[in-house]
């Protein structure tokens, strides 16, 4: 059996639960993926190069391991699940939707005396107010099957202050060059279509679960980097806390957008930003960071999988 795909016992425990039989299970470096259908793409074909984002998140541990930490944060959104997934690559909304929260943080921080140490919360929240140019230059990568990630060249996670002792541990584990390469990768959101998003530099996974056409449960998991300083876990939990002032902006936005879809004013949702006529079928391309290409690619994947075998 290929390394990293050992049987986890998941199949047996799932079968005992009485749910639909799971026929195919893969353990990828500790993350278990399952499907109940014999048809469709196999694991490697489906994920392809996108697994590099899982690799980077896990490699950030000097021991090459993650541990679930901080429990799971569950929150219900009154919107269709596709909105949540689209939003993960929507780089044109932060400076607008989060102006009252992140914008206030920036204003308050400006008034702090010059000697004040920058609080972790400010470091995390302030980049949401970065200008459009920042997000344009950050870049977006497109992969097959609706997968992709924002933050090709840099991201809102790039400028966090160094954690004492962390690089030394990484250097000891991987060697200087490889350690620099791992930590130099600052991908923002990696979307695994249809319903997962991970943030490597924060060690966070969001799982979007459709409950109804207008209801989506989001489960947010956080991970500890085994053998890394505790301050990294503190940052992860700070980013993912239930009282996140940024998260509430989005919650309100989704609900209003869902209400808007029930009106008869416009039959179409516009996803044409930076459309390129030759984009269908292209994969592993890096494009302008404010392009809506990833959303269009998600709908291309949706069409592909919903019509497969027809
Ligand atoms: Fe947002």
Strand-helix topology:
Layout lengths: L9 H7 L7 E5 L2 E5 L7 H5 L3 H9 L6 E12 L3 H7 L6 H4 L4 H9 L9 H6 L6 H7 L1 E3 L5 E3 L15 H9 L1 H9 L5 E3 L3 E4 L4 E9 L2 E11 L4 H10 L5 H17 L23 E3 L5 H14 L4
Bound molecules: fe (ii) ion.
Describe this structure in words.
The structure is a single chain. Strands 3-9-8-7-6-5-4-10 form an 8-stranded antiparallel β-sheet, with helices on both faces. Helix 9 crosses helix 10 (176-184). It has helices at 10-16, 43-47, 51-59, 81-87, 94-97, 102-110, 120-125, 132-138, 166-174, 176-184, 230-239, 245-261, 293-306; strands spanning 24-28, 31-35, 66-77, 140-142, 148-150, 190-192, 196-199, 204-212, 215-225, 285-287. The chain has one domain: Naphthalene 1,2-dioxygenase Alpha Subunit, Chain A, domain 1. It contains 13 helices and 10 strands. By secondary structure, it is α+β, with helices and mostly antiparallel strands. Fe (ii) ion (FE2) is lined by residues 93-94, 97-98, 250.
The biggest beta sheet is recorded as:
8 strands, antiparallel
CATH class (first level) name: Alpha Beta
Give the cofactors and ligands. fe (ii) ion
Number of strands: 10
Task: Just name the CATH architecture.
Answer: Alpha-Beta Complex
Structural class: alpha+beta
- Per DSSP, what share of the residues sits in E-state strands of 2 or more residues? 15-25%
Supply Rg: 20 Å
Query: How are the strands ordered across the major sheet?
Result: 3-9-8-7-6-5-4-10
The total count of helices amounts to: 13
- Domain tally: 1
What is the CATH T-level topology? Naphthalene 1,2-dioxygenase Alpha Subunit, Chain A, domain 1
Shape: globular
For this structure, what is the CATH homologous superfamily? Naphthalene 1,2-dioxygenase Alpha Subunit, Chain A, domain 1
User: What low-confidence regions span 5 or more consecutive residues with pLDDT below 50?
Assistant: 1-6
- The portion of residues assigned to helices is 25-40%
Mean pLDDT: 92
Order of helices and strands: HEEHHEHHHHHEEHHEEEEHHEH
Measured between the Cα atoms of the first and last residue, the distance is 33 Å
């Amino acid at each position: 059996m290929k390394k990293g795909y050992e049987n986890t016992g998941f199949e047996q425990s799932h079968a005992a639960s009485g749910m639909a039989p799971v026929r195919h299970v893969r353990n990828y470096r500790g993350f278990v993926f399952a499907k109940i259908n014999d048809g469709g793409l196999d694991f490697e074909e489906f994920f392809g190069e996108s697994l590099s984002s899982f690799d980077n998140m896990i490699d950030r541990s000097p021991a090459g391991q993650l541990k679930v930490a901080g429990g799971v944060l569950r929150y219900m959104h009154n919107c269709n699940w596709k909105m949540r997934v689209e939003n993960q690559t929507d780089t044109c909304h932060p400076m607008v939707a989060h102006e009252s929260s992140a914008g206030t943080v920036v204003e308050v921080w400006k008034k702090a005396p010059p000697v004040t140490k920058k609080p972790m919360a400010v470091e995390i929240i302030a980049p949401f107010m970065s200008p459009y140019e920042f997000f344009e230059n950050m870049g977006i990568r497109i992969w097959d099957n609706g997968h992709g990630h924002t933050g090709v060249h840099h991201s809102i996670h790039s400028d966090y202050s160094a954690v004492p002792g962390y690089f030394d541990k990484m250097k000891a584990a991987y060697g200087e060059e490889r350690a620099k390469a791992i930590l130099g990768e600052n991908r923002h959101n990696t979307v695994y279509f249809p319903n997962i998003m991970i943030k490597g530099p924060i060690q966070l996974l969001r799982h979007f679960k459709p409950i109804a056409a207008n209801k989506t449960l989001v489960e947010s998991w956080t991970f500890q980097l085994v053998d890394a300083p505790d301050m990294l876990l503190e940052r992860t939990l700070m980013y993912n806390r239930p009282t996140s002032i940024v998260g509430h902006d989005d919650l309100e936005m989704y609900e209003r957008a869902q209400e808007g879809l029930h009106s008869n004013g416009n039959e179409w949702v516009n996803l044409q930003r930076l459309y390129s006529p030759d984009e269908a079928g292209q994969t592993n391309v890096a494009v302008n960071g404010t392009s809506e290409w990833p959303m269009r690619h998600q709908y291309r994947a949706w069409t592909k999988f919903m019509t497969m075998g027809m």
